[in-house]
């Protein structure tokens, strides 16, 4: 008979039917719901709460504390609430979820993605492979963040936002120079149903209006009007989004 090599703190609580793979470390006061599947070599840091029927794949880290460089502009010394992970979530291989994140139910976090502290992610959102969601961000319900996109700190994405692979967002017009920059950090805002095409760059403080669409490869330097398509470098309004593509005409529900 094989003996498990996992270390589970005596104060941790595991729900009925939950299974834990080999080589895991589950820290003090962790709460894991019923019917969860924890893979091999998973680390779950103290106080983390995991809902019911959650799948956590090998080498994932849940509840990691942030690191702070001496000259960091966005990472602050602070008391962080425990990581909260909702029911029916899927956490891929090598995923890192920081303490201070709150992740709603039915969120898929694909392999190698990172979700930082002070981040909220809404129900049913997909965080793709290798995506980074930096600190102080809010991501709405039923969003799709495709592979390798980068969501900069202090950004807000409302419900049903689509971000294509390789998109880069930014929050520092001073590009890391002079103390003045600390007063002006501002991420990007994408209103409900906004879409950003592959490989686009969105500059600090830009708002993409509801149902706005950024064409692939664009550099967006100014706000995008609602229901408009912009393209180019710098991006300019090309035409309106076709009526059949508007979010209101998709027949989707937010249940």
In summary, what is this structure?
The protein has strands at residues 7-8, 13-14, 19-20, 25-26, 31-32, 37-38, 43-44, 49-50, 55-56, 61-64, 84-85, 90-91, 96-98, 102-103, 108-109, 114-115, 119-121, 126-127, 132-133, 137-139, 144-145, 150-151, 156-157, 162-163, 168-169, 189-190, 195-196, 201-202, 207-208, 213-214, 219-220, 228-232, 235-240. The protein has 255 residues and is mainly β.
Tell me about this structure.
Helix content is about 0%, strand content about 30%. By secondary structure, the protein is mainly β. The protein folds into 2 domains: about 5-65 and about 80-145, 3 Solenoid (UDP N-Acetylglucosamine Acyltransferase, domain 1); about 170-245, Hexapeptide repeat proteins (UDP N-Acetylglucosamine Acyltransferase, domain 1), CATH 2.160.10. A 12-stranded mixed beta sheet has the order 3-6-9-12-15-18-21-24-27-30-32-33, with no helix packed on it. Strands 2-5-8-11-14-17-20-23-26-29 form a 10-stranded parallel beta sheet, with no helix packed on it. The protein has an 8-stranded parallel beta sheet with strand order 1-4-7-10-13-16-19-22, with no helix packed on it. A hairpin with a 2-residue loop joins β32 and β33 (about 235-240). It is globular. The N and C termini lie far apart (about 45 Å). The mean pLDDT is about 95. It comes from Eiseniibacteriota bacterium.
